[in-house]
Design goal:
Elements (H helix, E strand, L loop, with lengths): L2 H12 L27 H14 L3 E6 L3 H12 L3 E4 L14 E4 L6 H5 L3 E4 L3 E3 L4 E4 L16 E8 L3 E2 L2 H4 L10 E3 L4 E3 L5 E3 L6 E8 L1
Parallel strand pairs: 1-12, 2-3, 2-4, 4-7, 5-8, 7-12
Antiparallel strand pairs: 5-6, 6-9, 10-11
Amino acid sequence: MSGRDVVLARVRRALADVPRGEGPEDWPVERDYRRVHGSRTTAQTVELLAENLADYRAIVHRCAADGLPALIRRLLAERGAETVVVPPGLDPAWLAATDAALVPDRAAQTARELDAVDSVVTGCAVAIAETGTLVLDGGPDQGRRRITLVPDHHLCVVRVPGQVVGSVPQALPRLAPDRPLTWISGPSATSDIELDRVEGVHGPRTLEVILLAE
């Protein structure tokens, strides 16, 4: 008996008492699980997000709205970024002070062209404190998925506290399942069997997050 036969036999046994024609949608799924762990104030939730972002080796900055253009200019200059990809709906004021050349996000761009760009600046859809995760959904201030996967440096702006939630169950209602969701927990990284960590394998080597006070 092959492995396939063994698996199928187990599936048949598991389904033996299920009436023919009954589908998964015929039974409601209980969703009374815990939606968030513990009790936190809004400020504590933001602090947890910052802590977990840093734990994933993202570089976290805090800023008020009037200081954002200058901060972005400084961070790009420190990276030596001469070109920056810009999503079509990003607030122009955010990059008004930068000296870098702005590269519009265009559908015709190839991966090779994006690889030649130094940085990308985006907003986000939601940030999850418990997991230190940023979620992008391809919105106007985030652009296409590829612009946040190919350039080596991603600078993401999170509006706090409005875009911050405590847990994944709290984030899901804010997201449309038919959108191209990208879940980011720190810079792109992987480890081999010897646990040697390599960053920048399938995404940006450096992730910087600006927590923008609303």
